[in-house]
Every structure is written in C-alpha cells, then in structure tokens.
Amino acid sequence: MENVLRPLIVIGGSVVLTLAIGWLTDLLLRKADERHSETPLWGLLRRGRVPYQLVLCAAMLRGSYDQARLLHDHRVGIGQALTLVLIGATAWLVVRIAAAIVESTYTRYARAHHDAARVRRVRTQVSLIMRVVTAIVGVVAVAAMLLTFPAMRAAGASLLASAGVLGIVAGVAAQSTLSNMFAGLQIAFGDMVRLGDTVVVDGEWGTVEEITLTFLTVRTWDERRITMPVSYFTSKPFENWSRGTPQMTGIVYWHLDHSAPIEAMREKLRDILRECPAWDGRDYGLAVTDSTPNTIQVRALVTAKDADDIWTVRVTVREQMIRWLTERHASALPRVNTADATLPPGRRTSPDGSPDGAVRRAPETPRTGRG
Predict the structure, then answer these.
(1) Same-domain pairing of 131 and 10
(2) Range 80-89 contact pairs with CB under 8 angstroms and sequence separation of 24 or more
(3) Domain of 259: which CATH number?
(4) Do 199 and 241 touch, CB atoms closer than 8 A?
C-alpha cells in the first residue's frame, strides 16, 4: 500500500501545490494590474504563467522524486529528464519576463513622447534587443542542457582547446552572416532606418515592416514584401522619406498647349487643394517650367504631412485638373497642329503653289528611240 500512496502523494502534491501557487501568483498580478493601470507590466507578466508553473512543478518533482520510489531502476534517466525540463522552462520564463519589462518600458516611453520618428527608433531598438536576449538565453539554455550529460562534460576540455581554431573557421565560413548581424546592430543604434519608415530601395517604394539582426522586410504599396539583407542599408544608398520630419512636397506635371490658361489653373489648383483632406495647407504653387515647339510643361507643387498623403494629393490634383481642362478648356490640351505653314514676309507663292523663286526642273522630252 505504501508503494502506491507514496508516489501519489509526492507527484499529486507537487502538481496541486504548483497549481495553487500559480493561481495565487496570477491573482496577485491581476490585482496589481488593476491598481497600477498606468503601466502594462503586471498584465504582461501574466503571460509567463505557463512557464512559471512548469518551473515550479519540475523543481518540486526533481527535489522529491527520490522519495516517491517509483521506477527506481530508471531514477537517473527520469532525473535527467526533469533537469532538462527545468532548464528549458527557466529559459522560457526568463524570456517572458524580459519581454514584459522591455515592452512596458517602450509603452511608457511612447506615451510620454509624441515624436513619431523617435518612437519608431526606440521600437526598432527594442525589437532587436529582444531578439538578442532571446538568442543569448537560448544558447545558454542549450549549453546548460548539454553539460548535464557526463559525456559532454568530459569532452569540455578538448572543446575549449580547439575553440580558437573553430572560431576562426566559423568566422570565415559565416562572414556574410556576421556582417549582417553587425549591420543589424548598426541600423538599430545608428538610427539609419526604423520600423514604419517610408523608403525607396532599388526603385521600389514601401514601408519598413520588420527588422531583424540579419534581414529587413519592406512592404510595398501593392502589398508585396521585399526581403533583403540588412547589410544592403549600410553599403548602398537608399531614400528614407521619413528621415527628419515626415512632411513632404510633391510634384505634378502636365504637358499642355501654348494657349493653356495658367492663371485660371492656379485658381483651380487652390480650389482643388482646399477640398482635399490630405493637403496640409502649408504651401502650393503652379508655374510653367519648360516649353517645346508643340507644348509647354506646367508644374504644380503641393505639400502633405507624410508620404501616404502626398500620394493622395498628387493623384487628386492630377485627375481633377485634367477633368476641368477637358470640360472648360479643351483647347489647352496638347494636340497635333495641321494648319498650313505661314511664309515669312516678302515671300510670294507662285501659281502652281510653290514659293516664288523656287527652282523648278523642266519636263524631260521623251525619246523616240531613233538615233
């Protein structure tokens, strides 16, 4: 009877005590979250309930398993398994706690600062810091798991002796990967590009959607995703439209006839912008910037608060101005001139239609074929 009750008491007591401690801890975190609503830290810490209970249960079973006297012949193997579970759950819990602290810190910073560019910069740094922390904790946890095996501890001396050679070989083999990792850190703390920035790379316009230690993802306006190594942004030039202030100036061109009503177009541009919500009201203008024998080039300047709005303003101005010209000033649209050419003064036209003084060839006399 004792052989049955002892394992049930040890294992069942560990599980029940784990659930009770987990429930009590979650209750305290919930009350702290309700009392301190200005910070999301306590609510974020509740996400670590599962790894927290797993750590408690594995630790209790690891410490009291010998008292259960269950499967005594496999005591070493079961103890090894519980140790591995304890190490993995601890690493999981550390990552969850670090993520809660970093996320709550970023949230308080975002609430206190209204500069969107600075908030995006901190968000980029926070994302990369969490990836680095997760990678470090994962490597340490795997190393700790491996060192629990006696064979790995015995091989530790030889591994340390050859660590220098292996490091050189690994560095040469992973040169591009290491360069991308250092480039990712440079982007995060050098403030070159941030999450949410509007960039132009290789002629593609889009928004930075994700930044990791090795690659960067740009979401284009047509919902495509362009993934490229972060070393691209440290070795090649690119356009960052969100650098500094997000305000932008856009240009709209028309090729029109020389008779286009420029003053009326300026008034129409003003009316179009007043009815366009995307226009920020800072500035606008319209001028003739070039001319050809057949057309003139008219340029309109408009402003908006960011890249998305400047696109809306440009297409709105272009469409409505063309519609207005078609309806009110159709003669201002470019057309092919088919009128007769006008001669300079003092030149007359001969009866046969050629200009006076033109050299005309006499008609040839047909030959009869006789010598």
Answers:
(1) yes
(2) 80/148, 80/149, 82/58, 83/148, 84/145, 84/148, 85/54, 85/58, 86/55, 86/58, 86/59, 86/62, 87/141, 87/144, 87/145, 87/148, 88/141, 88/145, 89/51, 89/54, 89/55, 89/58
(3) 3.30.70.100
(4) yes
Q: Read off the pLDDT of residues 43-102 as tens digits, 9 standing for 90 and up.
A: 778 888 888 888 888 888 777 666 555 555 566 777 778 888 888 888 988 888 888 888
Q: Is residue 134 part of a domain?
A: yes
In a domain, 172, yes or no: no
Q: How far is CA 304 from CA 205, 246, 310, in A?
A: 17, 9, 5
Rg, C-alpha atoms of the chain: 38
* Tokens read off for 354: 């050629």
Range of the domain at 130: 2-151
- What digits encode the pLDDT tens for the residues 180-206? 566 666 666 666 777 888 888 887 888
Look at residue 301 and tell me if it is in a domain. Answer: yes
Q: Phi and psi of 261, rounded to 5°?
A: -80, 90
The Cα 210–Cα 87 span in angstroms is: 30
User: What is the Cα–Cα distance from 223 to 297, expressed in whole angstroms?
Assistant: 33
Q: What are phi and psi of 240, to 5 degrees?
A: -120, 100
Q: Are residues 23 and 128 in the same domain?
A: yes
- Clarify whether residues 145 and 7 are in a common domain: yes
Domain termination residue (choose one: 151, 170, 195):
151
Which of 114, 134, 151 is a domain's end point?
151
Q: Render pLDDT for 132-179 as a digit per residue (tens, 0 to 9).
A: 788 888 888 888 887 777 766 655 545 444 545 445 444 544 445 556
Same domain, 29 and 142: yes
The C-alpha atoms of residue 297 and residue 286 are separated, in whole angstroms, by 11
Measured CA to CA, the distance from residue 276 to residue 280 in angstroms comes to 9
For residue 185, give the amino acid letter: L
Block residue for tokens 């560990």: 14
Please check whether residue 279 lies inside any domain of the structure. yes
Distances (CA, A) of 181 to 121, 190, 200, 290: 18, 14, 22, 49
Q: What is the domain count for the chain?
A: 2
